[in-house]
Amino acid sequence: MGAIFAFDLDQTIIDSTDIFTRLSGEYSRHTNNNRIFDIIGEHINRNLLDKVIRPAVALRGKGVDAILLLTNNSSREYVALVCEYLHREIGVMGKFPIVQDEPMGNSEFPEVDNVFDYVMVRQHKSRDQVDDPPKQLKDIKYMLDALKIPYKDIPDIARRTFFFDDRVQHDIRTEFNQYGINHYIQIMGPNTYRDGVNMGFIKGLPDLSDYRPVTRFFNAIILKNPSSSSSIPPSFTASAISPKPKTHRTVENIVRTFPEKYRTMEPITSGIFKSRGGRRRTKKSRKLRRTRRR
Ligand SMILES: [Mg+2]
What pLDDT digit, counting tens, does each position of 122-152 carry? Predict the structure, then answer.
């Protein structure tokens, strides 16, 4: 059983702080003009798109089970436009059209070309009907049920889910903590805290989110099955396999050291990750390694 990627929308995938003004009433997906998509494109978090969304889409069915959008935005038209933009960029359809008409499906959401498997907006029937409903594992569970993706139990869903949000705290973070899982990926830029609130991704500023848990997960899949990387941009594959290129790291070396990496993975999924209990390197042990290498 593979991983599940669940994304927030605003300030995570896209900076929406001024997008409504920029779109100024033009945003009906029926308009379908390129100007709308140009404006959306200017606001997209390209770092997240390239480092996480593209590889996740490429690995769907090869270690990634579902790619979900879980947003507290209530404008289906706007959310659909961003979905459509991402589809234009990536060009791959999720299971979205398949579940569209199912009883648990996306029937209230505009029928657009969509990279996501499921899109859950604020007023989705399964959620608390309040202004700012919590994001919980039960939302992920609902979407998995709709998509008929099997899981063992809630802890299993927690272990397999990577959750991306600019908000510091959603219930899902507490739920992850309960199971000792560190897959709550906080989206943040430089100095993005205003009045104690993290502003998340802001266009024009670098995205400084720590994607290492995800990169390690992609690494593990690629190393286990190198052919799975064929659809991933080569630039990503190279940096993923060797984040800090060192001249002495040959392919043989990488393969030989893989079991060690394997043991130090985050506890996640599908037998790829076993436990987090790998040997942590201390200053002393690093020194020892260096000495041994000489
Ligand atoms: Mg947000």
Answer: 999 999 999 999 999 999 999 999 999 999 9
The domain that holds 110 is classified in CATH as 3.40.50
| 165 CA distance to ligand 1 middle (Å) | 6
Please tell me the pTM assigned to this model. Answer: 0.78
What is the C-alpha to C-alpha distance for residues 266 and 7, in angstroms, rounded to an integer?
A: 19
Find the domain containing 74 and state its range: 3-210
Kindly give the distance from the C-alpha atom of residue 160 to the centroid of ligand 1, in angstroms, as a whole number. Answer: 21
**39 and 135 share one domain:** yes
Cα–ligand 1 centroid distance for 210 (angstroms): 16
> Is residue 115 within 8 Å of 151, Cβ to Cβ?
no
Ligand 1 centre and the CA of 15: distance in Å? 9
Structural domain total, the chain? 2
Residue 294 lies in a domain: no
**CA 10 to centroid of ligand 1, rounded, Å:** 4
Dig out the tokens for 220 from the structure: 């593990």
pLDDT at 104: 94
**Taking phi first (over 0 means left), then psi (-120 to 50 degrees means alpha), and beta for anything else, what does residue 280 get?**
beta
In a domain, 198, yes or no: yes
Question: With 0-12 CB in 10 A as exposed, 13-18 as middle and 19+ as buried, what is 12?
Answer: buried
Give φ, ψ of 7 to 5 degrees: -115, 140
Which residue positions in the chain have pLDDT lower than 70? 25-32, 192, 194, 228-294
102 and 246 fall within a common domain = no
Round to whole Å and give the CA distance between 294 and 292: 5
Same-domain check for residues 61 and 86 = yes
Count of alpha carbons within 13 Å of 93, Cβ hemisphere only? 9
57 CA to middle of ligand 1, Å? 21
